[in-house]
Amino acid sequence: MRPQFLDALPISESDRAKLRHLGASSPAALLSMRQANPDAFDKYVGEELVKKVIPLLLETLSAEQLRQLEEPLPSRPGLGARMEPPVSKN
Amino acid sequence: MIEIPLEQAQDIAPFIPRLKALGYRTVNQFQAAVRAADAALSGYLGFSATELLNSIPKELRPVEFMGDEELPALSFGAVLHSLPEPEMAFAISPPNAAAPALVSLIDQMEPIRDQATRSTCTAFSSVAAAEHSARKAGAPVQLSEQFVYAKCKEIDGIPDKPGSWLRYAFRVLAETGCCLASTWPYNAADKPGAEGQGPPPTAALEEAAQHRFTSVELSPTAVLDIKGQLEQSNCVAFSIPVFDSWIYSREVYRTGEITLPVPGEAIGNLGHAMCMVGYEDLPDRPELGFGRFLLRNSWDSYWAKESIVGKPGYGTIPYAYIARHGKEAYAVV
Asked: Which residues constitute the domain of residue B61?
């Protein structure tokens, strides 16, 4: 189902479209995305909109959700898929 | 006809880089693309392409294709002729009404595993797909990721570097086979100077020949082809670049709902392989490419403890992520 949380925010339609484009399903997902990479997030969303929308999103979270956002993130688990073209002719 | 550069359409400024990434340079080209492939383009943009087009002032749009008028038949060939090839946009398509909207193989998978801190995800994702195939054939087994990774490192040309490619994992599964996990269990600890931790014990090599698997290589961005394999109950191992916006997201860690990269976010050198175990069409989520794949990760059940798909260790990834960033994809058939 299409997430409704952006519809309720007092922002312009173009700002709403810009945030919807990020594909987050909840305020917590959007806030967490920004926590994870604030530089990229702020560059895309724009400083002015970030200042406006972050407090609005935080207001929608429960105490439990706020606590979850502040939990320390465990160290990154293993990855291992090479992204460059294979070097072997095999 | 006057060609109007996209830069003049400041009302759609945030979307201009994405349109340029598809090869569009002018409003004329964008308008022609909307006419030819509105749904696909909307999926790529994550926003209604028609609405986006209509937000450009009329004076900046070529008059003959204004608004919702029917496209003049005689102009159609010219429009297509001038259409740049938006390779990524056409990889995303609206759901096929004839196909099921939801496929889940999650209940048919062997218990979730943990690669720990080793760079062995290609072995874990390929083994997950192979194990599902064995169970489907009525002969469930638990196979050795340790074996697959060790054999990959013998042939991938970078024996001392961490990580590998799915192509080698599936070559091992087809040509050498794979021994049982009980014969050569996974060692979660790194061994300095021995990335693959091989060679395998002799008994493991002999046993592996009894467990060979056939796979098909898929276009890693072809969402519909991948869905087609899942519809046939074939799991799909895939690899993608990893972005900070999800790998360091507490919410993704909690729910397993992997998010799209932020537009413009740098693609790092790190990649990850996982196993697709289903899909879910979401017709009202164009920003996701109209749906998401269900996936099995290899980070035990501490990842996605409160899984969006109801089973810890499992999560989702948007169709649009795969359509834009898929690197490798193999189905065990």
From this structure: 6-88
